[in-house]
Amino acid sequence: MSGERRFFRRDRLTGHIAIGVVGVLCAAAVVFGVGMASAKYHLSDVGGWLTSVHRGELVHVNGLSGKVDGKVTLSGSTGHPMKVIQQGGVVLIVDEVTGVVSRVDPAHLNVVQGATFRGAAGMQVVSGSGQAYALDQQKGSVQRLDPMTLATMGSPLGLTGPLGSAGIDATSVLWVPVPTNGQAAPVRSGQAAQPIGIGRAGDDLSLTIAAGAPVITDFTSAQAVIIGKNGTQIKVRLPSTVAQVGKGSVLAPASTDGQLVPLLAGNSLVVLNTGSGSISSVALKLPPKHKLAAPQALGQKVYIPDQSSGDLIVYDSATNRMAPQVPVTGQAGPLDAFVKDGLLWVNGPDSAKGVVVDGAGGHKPIQKYTPDVPGSQKSPVPRVGVPAGGASGRPKPGGGGPTAPSHPRLPTKPPVTPPTHKPDPPKVTPPNAPTNLRATPQPDGTIKVDFQPGGGGDATGYKLLTSDGLTATPDKIGANGPDYTFTVNGGTCGQEYQFAVAALYHNRDHDSEVDSEYTTPTLSCTEPDAPSNITGTGTAQGAKIDWQAPPNADNKKVTYAVNVTGPKTGSNPNLTGTSVTFGDIWKNGTYTVKVTASNPAGTKSDSKTVTLKGPSVNYVGQHAGNPGDKSWLHQTPSNDDTNVYITDYNGQNLLVDCQKIGGHFAHSNGDPYYAGNLWDYIHYQGKEGYIIGYLVATPKQPDWQNYNGLPLWECAD
């Protein structure tokens, strides 16, 4: 069998994934009836590929017009659910029944390569940033692929299954959630890197690639971890509602074009800003018992696919209002949604319809079964009716006919004065309850609560219903607003709060109110910013680390964790000040200092490389021998050759920079008191170098075998 047709048996991949390149698959390519794909075709640069299950087709749609401009028919895939992976110029199709993974050549509109993956039901294929992988999610195997030929590259990696859905970030790193271990495993060029702890073993983990950065959400502990480009981590605490809806019930997108990650937990929509780490939450009125898909963020709007109605539910975060729904298929069935090229694509794989939505909220319907050339088929001109009725000239009901004859007025009787009595109070129609309550913690420790009037009835104003100890500004908002926002003060950082808004109205002879539903539980603070201006200094007490607190640190109840790595290591996980000294770090060298600011809402950290050097200390010289006797200074802590020496230093101060354990020295007189391997690096009369330890009256003499320790530092390697 030729190299292009390699087939790997199950034992070739250690029983995890069997992949075989089965050669070029036959596929009919149709472009507006031009014929088979022997010529090159130019598809729109702003476009997306959508599947049609009933026809076994993959169609390419122009994102600007919503028109089909090319399609590929996949042999043997009619009626099979398919998944499309489209990143950059690579388009892969996964037949989830046969396990065949194929690559589409957009230039010729045909399938140029295929590979068979046994056990497709438990398999995921991911591609992006020049990388491709196949994952057996049940068994935990990760196999690197050539994204063009789909051939295997190297041996598979074994992780602990079952695995979560994986993704590739902007730096070409594959991220794999490993819920069994409570970790996220990074894979670089097919090689496993150090996993990152996210939560506890068995936690419900999900991955979203947001603007190219991995975001791992732990739904069990209600916490999100944002991984920065340099490996920094931002941990954000989410509302407890996320953990209360049940395992597997929170919906999150696999990827987003921007930094906003929407999470849908029941009727609560939580939006995480991965750039700032801030969150907002709003209680939405969603159709009961409808099957919803993962929300998608585009611009200022969040789109929730409703698979029970075949529509998109739209929430506008800029106005905090529900926008009109966007029709997709108009019938129950699966909806595939993703954001690509600044557009939201929603496809009904079991339907002939789809929709493409732009950043402003405009949308264009997609008819997958009619591959019209954009602009070539004009919409039929509507038939214009005849004003005031039909062509016969008959009057249209309600007006427009001949004028009716007039009649003379009859004389009227004088008015009768009714008996005097107190009129009944007018009947009152209560207003509807306020909607779209959204609570957003602010950096200054306050909480913004905004809402929309429910309409109906005659509201006289609105007031906020809060917990004891909290105050709201203003006390009351007028019926006509115009700003429907309360600011809440007095919360305790780390505690969650819920709010409702009451619509007030006059009910006959007394005042009444109609209360809204309560908001999602919300913290009263945001996670702190990262510390800044990190410095390190070598002192007689050890390594002193200083940093500058982030803004509003006192209001946010910020504590700090400091980790120092290098020739020696040290850590302190719970500090309230902005300085710490590590008494067990006293070796000169280069260190990495990481300072993490934490509060109940989350964490942010910063790292800096510092050079630490201990202070020089004066000690008296001793055992110098007779006047004029030479004591040699060496370039290394050993008896190496040298021509530098000092004399007559008994009782004089020698400035000791540091100490080093080195080569053994024994005096020619044979006295073991003058033997040892501890050397001092000194300065004296303009000369410097290593001198054997017994010639300096350091604190631990006559121990010439071990370091003195602070205030003396160990010399760098």
Automatic annotation (TrEMBL):
Q: Please list the residue ranges annotated as the Fibronectin type-III domain.
A: 433-522, 527-615
* Key words of the record: Carbohydrate metabolism, Glycosidase, Hydrolase, Membrane, Polysaccharide degradation, Transmembrane, Transmembrane helix
Cited InterPro entries? FN3_dom (IPR003961), FN3_sf (IPR036116), Ig-like_fold (IPR013783), Quino_amine_DH_bsu (IPR011044), WD40/YVTN_repeat-like_dom_sf (IPR015943)
Q: Residue ranges under compositional bias (Pro residues)?
A: 411-433
Kindly give the PROSITE patterns that the UniProt entry links to this protein.
FN3 (PS50853)
Record field: transmembrane: 12-36
- Give start-end positions of Gly residues composition bias: 387-402
Report which residue ranges the record marks as coiled coil.
none
Q: Which SUPFAM superfamilies match?
A: Fibronectin type III, YVTN repeat-like/Quinoprotein amine dehydrogenase
Among the GO biological process terms of this entry, one is:
polysaccharide catabolic process
Instruction: Please give the residue ranges the record annotates as the region Disordered.
Output: 356-447
A molecular function GO annotation: hydrolase activity, acting on glycosyl bonds
Give the protein name, as stated in the record.
Fibronectin type-III domain-containing protein
Species whose genome carries this gene: Actinoallomurus iriomotensis
